[in-house]
Amino acid sequence: MSEPRILVTNDDGIESPGFRALYEALEDVGDPVAVAPYSNQSAVGRARSFEATVHEYELGYAVEGTPVDCVIAGVEALCPDVDVVVAGCNKGANLGSYVMGRSGTVSAAVEATFFDVPAIAVSQYVPTTDDEEFENLTPPKEAYADACDAAAYLVEESLGSAVFDGADYLNVNAPAPDATEGRPPMTVTEPSPLYAMSAEFDGETIRLEDNIWQRMQRGDIPDEEGTDRRAVVDGEISVSPLAAPHSVERHEHLDELAAKYRV
Question: Between 145-158 and 17-26, two packed helices, what is the crossing angle to 10 degrees?
Fold first, then answer.
């Protein structure tokens, strides 16, 4: 296969260190063009706009919109000859079934699949300590190296293979960086079903919190072998091959209810 044309997007914004790290890694394996949000769009899921201003940028285009806007704009108008969409590199892991629809990074990959364009979502686990707020952390570009190396490897090796015959998109998560030399091992996983959201109401304000992050930092997660979160906590790069359309399961009980509705 000739050098692939790569649409690079994210949800942390086009100026984020993770985006720059990913773009530079992909330069080694293809011809990347940036079509990324002008500002931070984290956790917007598959939200889209009806109109978005586009700015020319040194690496391509900055769009005043969501990650989904960027994919639609890129594939349909700004760079319609792309071979693959790569979204990231996200600051923070995107792990577990319940995160898939919430993440702007993953949602960009999902949107690409509806255009029949292979896609990869790439995220870097960033642990915190008790005295750190995740929102205030700004890891340097070098902190994303493992995730970006994995993304470049998968672009180079998967497009000419049958990988995307069996998956619509790949969700890639790298473990916390450590001092070990060499690449972390890569393992194929499934999204963890564990859900750990909680809500506390003080009479005026509701606080919503994802309690899984504290458990990940302590290493006491109950996730089974083969799940994405277990792999990342164990120091492995997780790659989940996923399908974008919602699955449909017919069963006789619902058929019976539907049949009775007009009786």
Answer: 40
Question: For 225-261, what is each residue's pLDDT tens digit?
Answer: 999 999 999 999 999 999 998 777 888 898 888 889 9
Vertex 211 angle, CA 190 and 45, to 5°: 60
Q: Let me know: does 10 contact 90? Beta carbons within 8 Å.
A: yes
Residue 74 identity: G
Please give the residue that has the higher pLDDT: either 216 or 233.
233
Asked if residue 192 belongs to a known ligand binding site, the reply is no
Residues whose CB falls within 8 Å of the CB of residue 216, separated by 6 or more in sequence, listed in order: 125, 127, 229, 232, 233
> Domains of the chain by range and CATH?
5-193+222-260 (3.40.1210.10)
12 is in an annotated binding site: yes
In whole angstroms, give the CA distance from residue 150 to residue 107: 19
- The token pair that represents 226 in the structure block: 């083969």
Q: What is the mean pLDDT of residues 136-145?
A: 87
Average pLDDT value for the chain: 93
What is the model's pLDDT at position 129? Answer: 67
- Copy the structure tokens of residue 186: 């890569």
Q: 210 among the known binding-site residues?
A: no
Write the pLDDT tens digit of every residue in 50-70.
999 999 999 999 999 999 999
**Is 165 annotated as belonging to a binding site?**
no
